[in-house]
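Continuing from the previous page...

OK, I double-checked the sequence for CsbD family protein against my notes and this is the correct one:
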Amino acid sequence: MMGKVQDKAEELAGSAQEAFGDVTDSPEHSAKGAARKYASQASYAVRDAADTIKTQVSDKPYAGVAIAAAVGVVFGYLLGRK
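Thanks. Re-ran it with the corrected sequence; updated structure tokens here:
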């Protein structure tokens, strides 16, 4: 949970830095702020997806095993081709 809060704080800081760069006409600050903002948004999305997967697997463990096996078969097929 703290990771999600930290990601949201980083997103806010990135937005502020981007706005500062826009106001002061500093492309360096604007680009760094945008990169910081989008990186934290991606991190938040990954954490949210991981939490969703954990919840789904704990609720339905057999479905999780079946999906993992299917993914393994697909990777095995793709990596085994020559």
